[in-house]
Amino acid sequence: QDRYRAYPGFAEFWSSYPNKVGKGKAFEAWMKQNLEGNARLIQTGLLRTLAYLTRDGGKFIPNPATWLNQERWQDEPRMASPLSSKTAGNVESLRRAAARLKGEDPDAPG
User: Fold this and answer.
1) What one-character DSSP code corresponds to residue 20?
2) How far apart (Å, rounded) are the C-alpha atoms in residues 68 and 11?
């Protein structure tokens, strides 16, 4: 719509945000907090946390208005392991087996 075109920072945020619901509410949050001047900071924060936001198939992505209202671009989430818990367990078992084969203590930090 035309009302969004005057705010290129919001347009960039919206195009990058992985959960495109509630655009009107997101725009209201953007305007209420006067975020256009912080668009680059917000976009950088969004891109930095995108992997975290989309983890587990994107089941936990907040609505864009919530993300903006909570200033989530400032989040510093702990990144999840790319390995499933089963795969991580297999990797650990292999590490321990390799240590034993080399005559090392499998409980030593690796």
Assistant:
1) -
2) 14
Task: List the single range of 12-26, 28-42, 95-109 with lowest mean pLDDT.
Answer: 95-109
* Residue 70 φ/ψ, nearest 5 degrees: -90, 5
Residue 87 has pLDDT above 80, yes or no: no
- DSSP run (H or E) holding 15: helix 8-16
- Tokens found for residue 67: 């993300």
Dist. CA 17–CA 62, nearest whole Å: 10
Residue 92 corresponds to which tokens in the numbers above? 């650990």
Categorize the per-residue pLDDT at 82 as very low, low, confident or very high, splitting at 50, 70 and 90.
low
Position 89 confidence tier, pLDDT thresholds 50, 70, 90: confident
109 in helix, strand or coil? Answer: coil
Query: If you write DSSP's letter for every residue of 45-85 in order, what string do you get?
Result: HHHHHHHHHTGGGGTTPPPHHHHHHTTGGG--PPPPPSS-H
